[in-house]
Each structure stands twice: as structure tokens, then as C-alpha cells.
Design goal:
Layout: H1 2-8, H2 10-14, H3 20-33, H4 42-65, H5 78-85, H6 106-126, H7 130-135, H8 150-194
Helix pairs in contact: 3-4, 4-5
Length: about 200
């Protein structure tokens, strides 16, 4: 009954100008009239109960979007919560941003929207079947991470290698020069001692 009342007032909850506590008060009164005893703080209990159900719903959706996640049983009232929330921006965002802060452009935004659409379709059609698991990966991107800096790291390593190579080459030249000078010194000293 609780979720049915929440669904009944969903248009008022969507209105940003409406005071939500008044709507929760209406729900509380209707539940009291139906015989549910929620106590003096029933308005807050109703609001908190819905917040907890929403948290479970979001956690399950996020789990379904992760690749390699094991199959998990749907939380209680998942289908009713999905009917209430599947078009909310919190669930199906209209404007996506990369972790670098730049807005996503057409192709990647479409990939994300199609991923959300495929998850929504899975839930409504055949949640839990092997086919649904295979389909959920169909429209995903390989990665949402920014381009890797491996090329920059490789260039840095190459430059460092070349610098080290030049340093070692110069060191070898100095050692050879030192050995040549030692040879000359020994030759001079042997001539002086030999006199």
C-alpha cells in the first residue's frame, strides 16, 4: 500500500515547487486511516522507508551495470520501485560527464544512454535469465577511463635511456683517455727511472 500511495502522488513529488513533507504527511494520514499504526513520527518514518528502498534499488542497478558481477537476487519491491524511478535523472541521467570533467559528446553519451536503456529493458523483460546477462554487455564501451598516458611514459623512458646511453658513452671515453694518460705517465716514469 505504501508504494501505491507514493506512486499516486508521484507527479507532486516530481514538482520542484511542492513541499515534500506535506505529501509525506498525506501518505501517512492515508496509511493511518487504512489501519497502519506508524506513531507520532510517521511522516519521517514514511520518508525514511522510501529513502531506504531507493538506496537498495540504486545499489542493485549499479551492481547490474558492472561487468563481471555475479547474479544477485532482486531486492524486495524492486519492480514497483523501478516503475516509480526508472525515468528519474538520478537513474537515467540526461547530461553525463567524464571523470576528467569534460562533457561527453554524442557517441559516448549515446553509448551510456543505450546502456541505461538496455538495463531498463532487461529489468522489464527477463531479469535473471542468461540471455539478459549476455545482452547487458552488448552496448557497453570498452572503458570510460580517459586515454592512458602509456605513450607519454614510453617516450619519457626512451629519452631517459638515450640520455643514459650518452652519459655512459662519455664515461667510457673519459676512462679510455685516463688509461691512455696513465700509460704515458708510466712510460715517462720508466724513462726517468731507467736513466
Amino acid at each position: 500500500m505504501f508504494l501505491s500511495l507514493r506512486e499516486k502522488y508521484s507527479s507532486q513529488f516530481d514538482d520542484k515547487k511542492t513541499n515534500k513533507s506535506q505529501i509525506w504527511r498525506k501518505i501517512w494520514k492515508e496509511m493511518e486511516e487504512a489501519g497502519y499504526n506508524l506513531g507520532d513520527n510517521g511522516v519521517e518514518r514514511c520518508r525514511q522507508k522510501f529513502a531506504n528502498l531507493q538506496k537498495q534499488y540504486l545499489a542493485h542497478l549499479n551492481h547490474m551495470k558492472k561487468t563481471g558481477s555475479e547474479q544477485r537476487e532482486q531486492p524486495l519491491y524492486f519492480d514497483k520501485m523501478h516503475n516509480l524511478l526508472h525515468m528519474k535523472d538520478k537513474i537515467n541521467p540526461q547530461n553525463l560527464q567524464e571523470s576528467t570533467g569534460a562533457s561527453t559528446s554524442g557517441a559516448s553519451r549515446n553509448n551510456m544512454l543505450s546502456l541505461n536503456a538496455s538495463v531498463t529493458q532487461e529489468i522489464s523483460e527477463s531479469t535473471g535469465t542468461a540471455e539478459a546477462i549476455r545482452n547487458r554487455f552488448r552496448n557497453t564501451k570498452n572503458s570510460v577511463r580517459p586515454e592512458s598516458s602509456n605513450a607519454q611514459l614510453l617516450d619519457l623512458c626512451k629519452r631517459q635511456f638515450e640520455e643514459d646511453k650518452e652519459t655512459k658513452k662519455r664515461l667510457i671515453e673519459l676512462l679510455e683517455e685516463q688509461n691512455r694518460q696513465r700509460g704515458q705517465m708510466l712510460e715517462i716514469l720508466s724513462k726517468l727511472v731507467g736513466r
